[in-house]
Design the sequence.
């Protein structure tokens, strides 16, 4: 093949039809040649780039429509504290397009329509080397920042399903919807391990257990990237936030994390390591500092661990505006240029977001404070991603694709299936559920007819695409049942005396009441939201007067079913002690209302389990199940020393018993393995799914270890009165930990294996395994 040496095809490309760009081999430069490997193309391209163009690749900006919307909502001062809106005072859209043409921008985020995505790419094609843009978006549970997308249940819901196949399937579909709308990169999975449920972002995580978080993260990455993300229906994923946002001081987003290196390595690193092993191509640094060092300026995290220990081949993106915060918030450097120096020197590769990055990079190289080789190390994986995603060969989206892909019937079915498997039945006294022999149902509560079921990271979705709880009940109830709905508005913060009095009255004439309460995670409802990004709470009770509403309904003396829509645990002991049933629906997505109604009527048998424990009160935090042996040696004087609900817990309309727990061998070598098997029997007449859980405990260890640690789970379907044997392979790596010398390995001695239906001791059978 003969390559030409002159300037490339940019001018010609720009004038060619958007969707087909035939080029003759003789006109190609090596990096434009599809027949070369992506790596060869990167090497060729980077050798042609100026420093300015390289710095441009490291610079991300928010999309033009996003800017327009933000400008209409915020002042420049508010922008600095906003993590949801972005714009650049003094820079107009036309200025940004000119920068794209000069290769001064390599990436955009939050471009929410195809027309804009194609327009941006068209300008990128006019640049000297014709380098396409990579467009990122927070497609956290579906591409939900785009109107008309399928909104899958949020990650805390997904984790409750303990169903990795569904998580992977929804991620494959999310990738398709993203590509059909012009995005190539999603800032997910969030593999933060949550230890403080006051944090507003619990809903976008997989909960409190490192093992479950890791497995869910891996399934997400596998679905999104599908091996090496080569092609046009895959996207790159992003492991975030490295590291520790789920345990920030006081539960406030961005606040410091202060933990031992042992805790970091034992609990917070493993999900990142596992998603890296699964190929996740980007990592986002955390807003927070870790033990005094801001993550964005941590060579330990971004270079020594990520690149040194874990061989991460991809690139690190900053979190929103965090580079400048090295100076303005953390105060570890006196100037913005020093902040850019510190972060890039530490291992950060792409700035989210704005104009204050490329300039300082160029100056820092010219001054000799950063080497061009360091810049190349950032730019290479960014270009590699663009090549593998096929952007050099066609950066445009076919505008007709969106209508075929967004919210199509297959995606709808997946979202519904996930919702059905992610709703946890927490309480069901006297089998009040499933509903039977009822004629009159009273329904009320601020979340009964609200879109709060969509969770955070969703923008407003068309009414027709969202089934609220009320609509689900209307669909599923049939016409023999009368639903008496009292509309108390859609704001969990606002309930009036009149509404509460009216609810008390109407509940009296019903056979049963359903009260739908909880939180509001909607990022487009600035005034109303009570959870989500940057919405921490100091209390974990029901917000405002919601408990009063439930008490008033309860006083009618009829059975009360409470449905919770929430992205974080709600600590409300009165509910556990008084109402008849509690359905923890989390944030069940587009079809949440249908799934909840099907569960209430028994058309679907609940099967989900808690991915996070629910503390008795906010004062009981830290409430994790995998606590150390001495944690509860002493008691509180003013409150029960217990959780309201434990990790792994969830009821079913079936009853399951566990028996015949056995091991194929009682002892293994450090390179051996054993199989632990249990018989699970559905002792009821109702078919159902059970999530069988395996926990381990090291009976004696040099360094204290948690009383139990999840090391396996399997979802099994059991027909009425059916039994199945369920096995787990136990390998030494599942038993390993960091010993006194901080070496990873398994100690000789006895381990207790626990198998059962939740992390509660009373739900577990135990057996001993010896490691020689
Ligand atoms: C969040 C990230 C998110 C980014 C872009 C930040 O405020 O912390 O998780 O990916 O915004 O929206």
Sequence:
């Amino acid at each position: 093949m003969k390559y030409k040496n002159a300037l490339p095809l940019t001018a010609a490309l720009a004038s060619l039809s958007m969707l087909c760009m035939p080029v003759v081999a003789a006109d190609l430069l090596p990096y434009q040649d599809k027949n070369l490997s992506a790596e060869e193309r990167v090497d060729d391209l980077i050798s042609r780039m100026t420093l300015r163009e390289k710095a441009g690749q490291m610079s991300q900006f928010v999309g033009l429509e996003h800017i327009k919307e933000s400008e209409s909502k915020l002042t420049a001062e508010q922008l600095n504290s906003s993590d949801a809106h972005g714009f650049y005072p003094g820079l107009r859209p036309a200025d940004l397009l000119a920068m794209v043409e000069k290769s001064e921008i390599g990436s955009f985020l939050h471009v929410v329509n195809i027309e804009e995505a194609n327009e941006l790419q068209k300008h990128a094609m006019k640049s000297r080397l014709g380098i396409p843009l990579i467009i990122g978006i927070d497609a956290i549970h579906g591409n939900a920042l785009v109107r008309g997308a399928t909104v899958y249940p949020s990650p805390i819901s997904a984790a409750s399903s303990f169903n990795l196949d569904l998580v992977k399937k929804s991620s494959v579909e999310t990738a398709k919807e993203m590509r059909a709308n012009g995005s190539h990169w999603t800032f997910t999975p969030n593999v933060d391990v949550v230890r403080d449920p006051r944090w507003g972002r619990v809903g976008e995580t997989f909960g409190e257990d490192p093992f479950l978080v890791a497995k869910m993260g891996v399934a997400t990455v596998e679905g999104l990237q599908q091996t090496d993300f080569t092609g046009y229906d895959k996207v790159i994923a992003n492991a975030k936030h490295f590291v520790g946002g789920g345990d920030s001081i006081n539960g406030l987003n961005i606040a410091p994390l202060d933990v031992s290196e042992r805790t970091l390595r034992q609990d917070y690193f493993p999900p990142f390591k596992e998603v890296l092993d699964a190929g996740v191509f980007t990592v986002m640094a955390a807003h927070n500092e870790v033990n005094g060092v801001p993550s964005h300026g941590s060579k330990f995290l971004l270079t020594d661990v990520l690149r040194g220990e874990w061989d991460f081949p991809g690139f690190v993106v900053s979190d929103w505006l965090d580079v400048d915060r090295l100076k303005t918030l953390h105060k570890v450097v006196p100037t913005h240029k020093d902040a850019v120096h510190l972060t890039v020197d530490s291992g950060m590769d792409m700035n989210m977001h704005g104009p204050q990055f490329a300039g300082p990079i160029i100056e820092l190289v010219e001054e000799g404070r950063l080497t061009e080789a360091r810049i190349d190390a950032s730019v290479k994986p960014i270009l590699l991603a663009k090549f593998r995603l096929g952007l050099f060969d066609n950066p445009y989206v076919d505008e007709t694709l969106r209508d075929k892909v967004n919210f199509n019937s297959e995606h709808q079915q997946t979202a519904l299936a996930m919702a059905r498997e992610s709703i946890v039945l927490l309480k069901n006294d006297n089998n009040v559920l499933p509903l039977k022999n009822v004629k009159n149902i009273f329904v009320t509560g601020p979340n009964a007819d609200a879109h709060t079921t969509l969770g955070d990271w969703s923008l407003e979705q068309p009414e027709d695409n969202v089934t609220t709880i009320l609509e689900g009940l209307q669909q599923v109830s049939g016409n023999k049942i009368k639903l008496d709905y009292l509309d108390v508005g859609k704001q969990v913060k606002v309930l009036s005396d009149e509404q509460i009095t009216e609810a008390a009255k109407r509940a009296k004439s019903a056979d049963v009441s359903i009260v739908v309460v909880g939180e509001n995670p909607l990022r487009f409802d600035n005034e109303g939201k009570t959870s989500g990004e940057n919405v921490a709470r100091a209390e974990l009770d029901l917000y405002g007067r919601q408990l009063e509403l439930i008490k008033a309904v309860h006083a009618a003396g009829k059975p009360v079913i409470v449905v919770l829509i929430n992205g974080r645990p709600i600590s409300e002991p009165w509910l556990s002690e008084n109402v008849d049933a509690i359905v923890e629906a989390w944030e069940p997505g587009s079809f949440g209302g249908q799934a909840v109604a099907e569960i209430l009527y028994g058309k679907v048998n609940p099967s989900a389990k808690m991915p996070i424990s629910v503390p008795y009160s906010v004062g009981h935090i830290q409430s994790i199940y995998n606590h150390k042996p001495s944690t509860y040696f002493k008691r509180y004087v003013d409150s029960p020393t217990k959780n309201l609900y434990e990790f792994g817990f969830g009821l079913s309309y079936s009853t399951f018993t566990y028996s015949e727990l056995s091991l194929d061998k009682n002892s293994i070598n450090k390179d051996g393995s054993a199989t632990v098997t249990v018989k699970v029997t559905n002792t009821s007449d109702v078919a159902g799914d059970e999530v069988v859980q395996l926990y381990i405990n090291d009976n004696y260890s040099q360094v204290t270890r948690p009383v139990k640690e999840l090391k396996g789970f399997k979802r099994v379907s059991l027909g009425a009165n059916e039994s199945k044997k369920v096995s787990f392979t136990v390998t030494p790596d599942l038993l390993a930990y960091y010993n006194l010398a901080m070496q990873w390995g398994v100690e000789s001695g006895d381990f207790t294996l626990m198998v059962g239906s939740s992390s509660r001791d009373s739900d577990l059978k135990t057996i001993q395994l010896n490691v020689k």
